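Comment thread on ticket #2218

A.B. wrote:
> Attaching the input chain for the structure job we discussed in standup.
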Amino acid sequence: MAFLLELKEKIKDFYNKYDVYAVPAGKFIIALISFLMLNFSIGYMSKLKNPLIAVILSVLCAFLPNGATILLLSVYILANLYAISAEFAVIALCVMLIMYLLYFRFTPKSGYILILTTMLCWMRMPYLIPIAVGLCASALSVIPVGFGVAIFYIIKTASEYETAITNQSVSDTVQQISYIVESLVSDKQMLVVIIALAVTIAVIYFVRRLTVDNAWTYAIIAGTAIEFIILVVGEIVFKAKLNMILMIIGVVLGAVVGYVCRILFFAVDYKRTEYVQYEDDEYYYYVKAVPKINVVNADVKVKQINARKTKKTDNIDDVRRYHSENAATDEEE
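C.D. wrote:
> Ran it. Output below, let me know if you need it in another format.
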């Protein structure tokens, strides 16, 4: 715990000194990974598949607001979907418009939660995100998390749709539209994952806001249990075809991430809790104050001063001789 607290202070100091460079660099890295991930998954437009395009767009994202990054990624997705089918691009556009109207209305500053959710879904580890989001963000964060999952499954459906077109499983326009809509609406795995993540975030948010001691710890335990139960029930009842091994690993790692977030963002000492009571003209106030745990790394420089070395003597004559020599030296100076 002490190591994480020290790391927190170092990160804060680094951010305060170099935030002008660190923030654009972080945004550039996230955007670049996102564009390369899209190229790998649905890179059907040859002109956009050039890595140089991804680098240029990532540089733009580094200096643009979060919402602009989301829009650029959406346009990039739609362009690649249009290379497969105009019908698919239109349907995806309609879905994205509905999602983004809600997103920009309620959580316009949570763009990177949406991006990270999609990236974790691509890595088959969406279970890492809900506990951290529930602890560090608001309950409305279910919107970008849900949209991130939905975008991933749109991308996944695009790959399956391209295979179906190649094999001529669907031929005319009506069959193509029907295939796309049914694939998105009837995807039980997507629904189970969205419900599990959304409910987990909501439960963690409301539990960690309770005034009881160790509320964040209880929130992590409750959220982990709820997420695991919903995923298992969804697998049994709806046959969601979840990878149970990855699911268990992801839920456990999500709890570990939540514990790290608790130390970094809510390290308090309940043993030193104080209760304060005071009043004004209209109210009585009963305040519970819990002190934070802070670790201050002071760079202490110790300067060693060596005194004049004295000569050890075994008899009184040596002592007198030593003092007389020092006296003579001082007179000459």
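A.B. wrote:
> Thanks. Noting for the ticket: The radius of gyration is 31 Å.
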